[in-house]
Recover the amino acids of this structure.
């Protein structure tokens, strides 16, 4: 036999997942033949260099996938923090500051707390499940963190809405007449409904599994819909504030405040886009609990965590892999 020979462990429990991860769309026994497996049933087999090269390529792709996630997540965090800094600069330097006296300074709590709570904290809550270094934590712990961040975001949103109504009532300004206020109030109402449904269905252990599975698409879609609505409402709100608040010089003359707030809007939109990208990328999905436990037992180093990222592809194809295992076992039994 020519070339370099490496040994790989193949068992009925891991042949199908490994074959799927390496890109083979065939049953385990057929995949084994592609790797020049000795047909004699044994717990180990010899695999020629091309197959092991595929494993090396898989590990390299896994590391690249992990690096891509880190780049996108770090960029999203940076944009979020910069957006908060811009909001603070706006209300403290260009506006009247912060107070709770019914005046303009009380209104300034509204944009600041919305950026911190309804945008930044809600965005982090959406992607917290996808952080690879949290996969060693229990699913219940991550549910509590997810719910806690959402509850905190809702509290800040309620405070900001109260500040707006107090300011309007003190200055005899009509409430709820603009599209910004309509969509904003709708999201503030939908948000606690989403939180209550999440707690009732996914935090309470007594909820049947089939109910959780049936409502999961609704929970995911409604969460992303609310977050997108918040981003759109914030962009409408800051534009409305500039149009009403800038008189001399006017908004159309692009004074420094207008430029800063326009950049704030771009930061908010970019942050929202990255959060949605992270939340909808299938390869960055948190694996099933049994897979994360395996990663926890074998990932004391960062490399182990990186390997866990690739396991999401197994989660995505769990049912098809199970079918392939059964087909492979049936074919082996017929050949014996």
């Amino acid at each position: 036999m020519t070339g370099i020979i490496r040994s790989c462990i193949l068992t009925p429990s891991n042949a199908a997942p490994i074959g799927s991860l390496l890109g083979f769309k065939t049953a385990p026994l057929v995949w084994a033949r592609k790797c020049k497996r000795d047909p004699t049933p044994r717990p180990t087999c010899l695999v020629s260099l091309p197959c092991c090269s595929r494993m090396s390529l898989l590990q390299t792709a896994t590391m690249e996938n992990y690096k891509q996630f880190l780049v996108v997540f770090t960029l999203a965090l940076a944009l979020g923090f910069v957006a908060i800094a811009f909001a603070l600069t706006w209300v403290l330097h260009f506006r009247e500051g912060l107070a709770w006296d019914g005046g303009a300074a009380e209104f300034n709590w509204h944009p600041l707390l919305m950026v911190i709570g309804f945008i930044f904290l809600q965005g982090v809550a959406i992607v917290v499940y996808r952080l690879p270094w949290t996969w060693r934590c229990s699913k219940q712990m991550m549910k509590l963190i997810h719910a806690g961040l959402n509850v905190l975001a809702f509290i800040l949103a309620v405070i900001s809405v109260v500040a707006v109504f107090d300011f309007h009532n003190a200055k005899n300004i009509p409430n709820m007449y603009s599209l910004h206020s309509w969509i904003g109030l709708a999201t503030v109402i939908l948000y606690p409904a989403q939180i209550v449904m999440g707690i009732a269905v996914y935090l309470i252990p007594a909820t049947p599994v089939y109910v959780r599975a049936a409502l999961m698409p609704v929970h995911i879609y409604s969460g992303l819909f609310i977050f997108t609505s918040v981003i759109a409402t914030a962009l409408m709100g800051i534009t409305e504030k500039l149009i009403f608040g800038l008189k001399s010089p006017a908004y159309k003359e692009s004074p420094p405040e207008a430029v800063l707030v326009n950049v704030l809007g771009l930061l908010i939109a970019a942050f929202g886009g990255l959060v949605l990208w992270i939340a909808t990328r299938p390869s960055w999905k948190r694996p099933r609990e049994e897979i994360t436990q395996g990663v926890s037992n074998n990932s004391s180093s960062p490399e182990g965590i990186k390997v866990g990222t690739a396991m999401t592809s197994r989660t995505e194809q769990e049912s098809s892999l199970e079918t392939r295992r059964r087909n492979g076992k049936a074919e082996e039994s017929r050949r014996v």
